[in-house]
Structure formats: C-alpha cells, structure tokens
Amino acid sequence: MAASSSENALLLIDFINEIVHPDGKIAGKGYADFDARHGSLDRVGALLRHARRAEMAVIHVGVAFSADYREQPEASPVFGGAKRFGVLQRDTWATDFHVKAAPLASEAALVKHRVSAFFGTPLELLLRTYGVRNLFIAGCATDMAVQTATRDAHDRDFACHVLGDCCIAANDDDHEQTLRMLVKVARIMTLDELVAS
Q: Which domains are seen in the chain, by residue range?
C-alpha cells in the first residue's frame, strides 16, 4: 500500500454492503434510505476522486467478524446479535466495501471488530507512519463509527475534519444532532468546501 507525502489523509468508515447497500441486512435500519434521499455515496465517490487527485493517503475501515464470530462482543447492544442474524461476516459480499467507496489496491483497507476505527487496528500506526496531521473523516453511521473515530482521533492530537454531507445515518435527526456535537472536537465541512480549499 502506498502512502502520500501529504499531511492530509482521508478516512472512510463502514461503507460496506451490509450497512449501506439496499440488499444489506443492516441497511434496512434506515441507512440505504438515507443514502437514497441524500445521495451520500455519490458524494463519497467524488470525495475519493478528489483525495486521490490531491495525493492524500486514503484509508478504508470496515467492521467484520470471522466465520465463527470469535471477535464478536456478545454483550454489545450493537454487535451482540451478529452471529444469530448471520451479519457482518468477513470475506463475504456483506463486508465488501460498496462499489462507490471501494478501495484501490494501493490503499489501506483495515478490518475492525468494534465501533471505533482505532480500537484493535493499526490505524494510528498508519497515520503516524504517513506523517498525517489533518484527518478528513466520512462514514456510516454518523452517530456511531464517525463520531467515535473523530473523538478518538481528536484525543490522539489529529486535526479532525468531518465531511458531513458524505456521511450516512439511520435518520436525519441522528445525523444532524451528531454533527452539532462534533463541532466541539472537529471542523464540520462539506465536500464542496474541501474541494475549494
């Protein structure tokens, strides 16, 4: 995987079929509908094209569990039912990145087993190795993975920028309330603002 000499990196979280594709088992919780109404994944595709042209390091992170669900936290309200419902199984279509947010072979693609993109992954190591100072974040869900990663990145002294119109949530209220809270630890911006900067 190649990295850019830029101090900027793009972090894309949980844009996987199970969660954002209309045929995904979790997408029915509102995520696919949110995308259909807001065109979020189309903007994620444009965001990726911009980041690649700007030679930003691009890192994709997706949640997944082994076939036997050995990493599943059974007491978790979020992941506790994964095995029972047969969701988020690694190396299946479900945990492949959506075609509009698919990584290039040269881009890092990490697997996580918890909400945070930092927990139990080499994400921080990659960011430090790449020399990243400014982290641009988009993902699903705004109120879960995006919020957690942004707060974690902030506390690791990265300057955080959340691309609000490139994020997906189960509903507009969750999305908007989370962005209002994240103003305390990140700059909330649009794709157009990033491209113009």
A: 8-196 (3.40.50.850)
